[in-house]
Specification:
The protein folds into two domains: 15-262 and 474-484, 3-Layer(aba) Sandwich (Aldehyde Dehydrogenase, Chain A, domain 1), CATH 3.40.605.10; 267-460, Aldehyde Dehydrogenase, Chain A, domain 2, CATH 3.40.309. The protein contains 15 helices and 22 strands. It has helices at 49-64, 73-89, 91-102, 106-128, 165-178, 193-205, 219-228, 241-251, 276-288, 308-319, 342-357, 372-376, 393-396, 412-420, 435-444; strands at 15-17, 20-22, 29-34, 39-45, 134-136, 144-152, 155-159, 182-186, 212-214, 234-238, 257-261, 267-270, 300-304, 361-364, 383-386, 403-409, 424-425, 427-431, 449-452, 468-469, 472-473, 482-490. The strands form six sheets. A seven-stranded mixed β-sheet has the order 14-15-16-13-12-18-19, sandwiched between helices. A six-stranded mixed β-sheet has the order 9-8-7-10-11-21, sandwiched between helices. The chain has a three-stranded antiparallel β-sheet with strand order 5-6-22, with no helix packed on it. α1 (49-64) runs parallel beside α7 (219-228), α4 packs parallel to α5 and α9 packs across α10. The longest helix has 23 residues, at 106-128.
């Protein structure tokens, strides 16, 4: 295909603050690295505390004094639809940028992630026109009217992850804007490119200055400053559980609203009545999509003893069909991507070594690729450990890579116990032909999103999941970026206090 870097700016990508593209005050920049080669292909300005404050001030003024706060839902909807159209016209550009920055498979980005990013604007545009309150019957009957409104929180800081920044960023930011908030977007330093480029989409669509601000930089500087600021009304973050705990502590002095979408160690329970080859395909898809860098990935496979060996063999066969490489080389059969960075890759290899030492049985993978081209990048082969028990670290801890832990069970009760004996509660799946059992087990799994006889969400905007236990905090959807307000109206003209 044509040069994949043809859309990349040769100048450092700027911050977007108050409706303007600006360098950081310090002039500091950082390298943008392609995970497939670990080579730099672009640069971006790195925000400091002064830049964070400029973005906060711009967002605060746009909400408190600008036209955004007085716009109707219909007017916000029109702007979101304009952003949709601008992004759609530049779909190829953003697919290339995201593939380069994240080491993804180009077809996956171009035909799934970018369309879902575009759809995020379209869905939120509809929601902007239909945010409804309710009338509540109260004890005084016709003498008192009580109604509940949903109102924007104000200034929202959205801290994005590196595993799907464009898709998740568009989905979340469009919901923030639909609710009537202004926003400061902080993409990950490991994956900033598509969000920095997205600034021009909001600018071209005509959003008022300060409504959208995008600043790149380390979480220890940018994220901490956003969280600590009393002028930021809400922090929403998607990322690791330890980072979420840090934000919880940092937000305590201001008691601001938080929404945290955190880690997972999701169970995938397979009963003996399934079509084994098909269950194997879903199991492999569940732990290798995006090279396992998906928070809801099905990384714990809990298998009935009657099909345990058969399913393992089918999974190994499926793993052999995955061909790693550059995501732009899909026409040569590449269908398995790299991990995001050298540091993260090293962390996944440490878990693989922990699995070996901890007594799990390595079934496939677990060895670095020998191809020199792959050795340059952050590639980890699909790795399957069998006979994994709950006392092992690889069973309990999130690896966030293409590593599957397989455990056998005998009874339904045992399967549910195994599913729930970790500190996470993000997602999970049940595979069985028994409809009653499928719903019964799904209801008993401690997680916010469940799949039956498939894996991954079919409606990220329509039916967003929320994490249980250490997998998250706060609701999902547009209303998570809003406050409820209940209002009581005394309709009795001669009303007096009941004293």
């Amino acid at each position: 295909m044509a040069d994949p870097t043809r859309y990349v700016s040769r100048e450092p990508y700027k911050l977007y603050i108050g409706g303007e593209l600006v360098p950081s005050r310090s002039g500091a920049t950082f390298e943008i690295i392609n995970p497939v080669t670990n080579e730099s292909f672009a640069r971006a300005y790195q925000a400091g505390v002064e830049d964070v404050q400029r973005a906060i001030d711009a967002a605060r003024a746009a909400f408190d004094e600008g036209p955004w706060g007085s716009m109707s839902g219909q007017e916000r909807s029109r702007l979101l639809l304009k952003a949709r159209d601008v992004l759609a016209a530049r779909a190829d550009e953003f697919a290339h940028l995201e593939t380069l920055d994240c080491g993804k498979l180009y077809p996956s980005v171009r035909y799934f992630e970018v369309p879902n990013a575009i759809d995020g604007f379209e869905y939120s545009a509809g929601k902007a026109r239909g945010i409804e309150g309710r009338v509540v019957p109260v004890g005084d009957g016709p003498r008192c009217l009580n109604y509940v409104l949903w109102q924007p929180v104000g200034v929202v800081a959205e801290i994005l992850p590196w595993n799907g920044p464009l898709m998740m960023g568009c989905q979340k930011v469009s919901a923030i804007l639909a609710a009537g908030n202004t926003v400061i977007i902080k993409p990950s330093s490991w994956a900033s490119l598509s969000l920095l480029a997205l600034a021009s989409v909001f600018h071209e669509a005509g959003f008022p200055p300060g409504v959208v601000n995008i600043i790149s930089g380390p979480g220890s500087v940018v994220g901490d400053a956003l969280t600590a600021s009393p002028s930021v009304d809400m922090v929403s973050m998607t990322g690791g559980t330890e980072t979420g705990k840090h934000i919880l502590a940092a937000a305590a002095p201001t008691v601001k609203k938080l929404a945290l979408e955190l880690g997972g160690k999701s169970p995938n329970i397979v009963f003996s009545d399934v079509d084994v080859p098909n269950a194997a395909r879903w199991a492999v898809f569940g732990f290798t999509l995006n090279a396992g860098q998906v928070c809801v990935a099905g990384t714990r496979l809990i298998v009935h003893e009657d099909i345990y060996d058969e399913l393992l063999a089918a999974i190994v066969e499926q793993c052999r069909s995955l061909r790693p490489g550059n995501g732009f080389d899909y026409e040569r059969g590449v269908n398995f991507q790299s991990l995001i960075s050298r540091d993260h890759c090293a962390a996944v290899w440490r878990y693989i070594e922990e699995g070996r030492k901890g007594g799990a049985r390595l079934v496939t993978g677990g060895e670095p690729y020998r191809d020199p081209a792959l050795a340059k990048g952050n590639f980890v082969p699909p790795t399957v450990f069998a006979d994994v028990t709950p006392d092992m670290r690889i069973f309990q801890e999130e690896i966030f890579g293409p590593v599957l832990c397989v455990t056998r069970f005998r009874t339904e009760e045992e399967a549910v116990r195994l599913a729930n004996c970790v500190r996470y509660g993000l997602a999970g799946a049940v595979f069985t032909r028994d409809v009653a059992r499928a719903h019964r087990v799904a209801a008993r799994i401690h997680a916010g999103q469940l799949y039956i006889n498939s894996y991954y969400s079919r409606g990220m905007m329509e039916s967003p999941g929320a994490g249980w236990k250490e997998s998250g905090l706060g609701d999902a959807g547009v209303l998570k970026y809003m406050h409820p307000k209940t209002i009581f109206v005394d309709l009795n003209e001669k009303s007096t206090p009941p004293l």
